[in-house]
Predict the 3D structure of the following.
Amino acid sequence: PWSRVRAIRDSSTHLTGAVASNPLRAEFCGHGESPRYHRTRVSVTGIRTLAVAGAWGYIGRKFVDAGLDLGLDVSVLDPGPVPGDSPFDRLTRFTDDSFYEQSADLFHLALHPEHRAPALRRLLQRAHSEPLAILNEKPMAAPERPQDCATLIEDLAGTQALLLFDFPELFDPLTSRVI
């Protein structure tokens, strides 16, 4: 996922992104709707710090491990039981919502829906006064609630947030056996 996700803050605190060659960003909402384009200034640099909420889940842990393998400073938040093989000596662990107040180049939200929405709201509130890059693991809206796309786009208005959604496709040996 790192080759596709290079959304970070550069030294001048402007959000940057992997789409440096294209100054247009499309926002899609619902099936069959036309995209709305907004001009965005972007450049590409490296990520130095990664904050993962939901770090002990399957996808969250993959992001933690990838961040550590890339030599990033990684911080985590997860209310669930800590796995026995957690690399505590190589990361910063938060146990409360102060996690969302830290300085990080990229926040990755790998949370269950009941925790994801409040976490995203908190970061978007903060993004009214400072630039933030947020990678959300889940779809923009549940299939049965496409109207939530428009609400989220409205919530982003007036913020300095770069909000991306990912659908990681991680290799599983079962995949090759099924194919």
User: Anything to note?
Assistant: Residues 1-44 have pLDDT under 50 and may be disordered.
